[in-house]
Amino acid sequence: MRKYFPFRIDETWYALPLELVETVVRSVALITLPEAASGLLGLIDYKGIVYPVVDLRFRLHKPSQPVGVDQRIVLAHRGEQIVAFLADEVESVIEVSDARLKQSADIFPDMDSYVTAILWHDEKKLQLCDAETFLYFDHELLEGYKDETVSSKPTTDQ
């Protein structure tokens, strides 16, 4: 049995392995970057540490939307780094047996690189995501922000 964290972007449900999810916070105004890399919405200050906020709508070829008060910001591990992204809705953690997963290669060999498997749970189809490819962004513009702390109080809530 494995645990997954389900979240929705527009009408589509996705999930990440729970061990990759650091925390979920209420949406806040982001720190904007005037020359941000493609697919990067800005930065979030969480407990005095600055994290990049990936625009998953860009990755999914959907139009960008402003940050909404009902959205949640998910901080998740992508390799050694933690990145954040906006989710329109999040649900409680689910526990699933491997037998219930339909591997993406069994469905279609050239499926999107970020989808590792499909799972039907509570009448929802969830696309299980590979964090390395799903949470990718061009990080070169952020090298100056790496491990930087912010002197002001964090602007997020849990």
Features:
single chain, mainly beta, 5-stranded mixed β-sheet, globular, 8% helix
Outline of the structure:
The protein is mainly beta.
Structural overview:
The protein is mainly β and 158 residues long. It is 8% helix and 42% strand. The strands form two sheets. Strands 1, 2, 8, 9, 10, 11 and 12 form a seven-stranded mixed sheet that branches. The protein has a five-stranded mixed sheet with strand order 3-6-7-5-4, with no helix packed on it. A hairpin with a 2-residue loop joins strand 6 and strand 7. It starts with a strand and ends in a 24-residue tail after the last helix. The C terminus is likely disordered.
Question: Residue ranges: pLDDT <50 for 5 or more in a row?
Answer: 140-158
Helix content: under 10%
Number of strands: 12
Shape: globular
Q: Helix segment count?
A: 3
**Oligomeric form:** single chain
Alpha-carbon distance between the two ends: 28 Å
Radius of gyration using CA atoms only: 16 Å
- Strand composition percent: 35-45%
Name the helix and strand elements from N-terminus to C-terminus, one letter apiece: EEEEEHEEEEEHEEH
Structural class: mainly beta
What's the rounded overall pLDDT mean? Answer: 78
Largest sheet: 7 strands, mixed
